[in-house]
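Incident log, structure service

09:12 report received: a user says their structure output differs between two submissions of the same chain.
09:20 pulled the input from the user's history:
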Amino acid sequence: MNRILILFTHPRFEKSRVNRALLKDIGQHPAVTLHDLYERYPDFNINVEREKELLLEHQVIVWQHPIYMYSAPAMLKQWIDLVLEHGWAHGEGGDALKGKWIFNAVSSGGARSEYAANGFNRFSMGEILIPFQQTATLCRMIYLPPFAVQGTYRLTDADLEHYAARYLDLLNRLSQSDPDIEFIRTFPFLNDWLLFEAGETHHDQHPSL
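09:34 re-ran on a clean worker, output below:
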């Protein structure tokens, strides 16, 4: 079983319908460690050595956060800057995280169609997340496409239940098997890969979720 560490960063979790839905049943998953960084470090004083231990204990790492001004909440940047140290996570001798899988699980108010060259936000979600991808690459980790919940202002409770079920399915698949990682990386979103695995779409179709 691949153990999964969710590094959850949301400064207003109590107001987030999306993340409450996504995480509702995750805490009971035997392979998942849910690590709420804002709850653990309200003063931003991150225990770097403890965070390193957690990373070493898990094969799959998830940066779960909302998209704030085309990036992540400040806590996640603080975590990246302090924990992924030169000589440990990257640079000479820095191979502690080599080969681990990592991806962003994100939510955005804008719909998928609005994150495109001809959309309101001008860039795709993949492009917005390039700094995270490059960070993972620098640390010799295997960066997977994001799992995304978009257009959040228009989602019904039924929509949220759908996304929560997809997210749980994703975590189950990553924890219980050795999927074809290179094939997964050909999809722009993990949502698309899940639809393909469920037989709901073809590989060359990228539905708007």
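09:41 both user submissions now match this output. Likely a transient worker issue. Closing.
09:42 reviewer note: The chain has nine helices and six strands. The chain has a mean pLDDT of 91.
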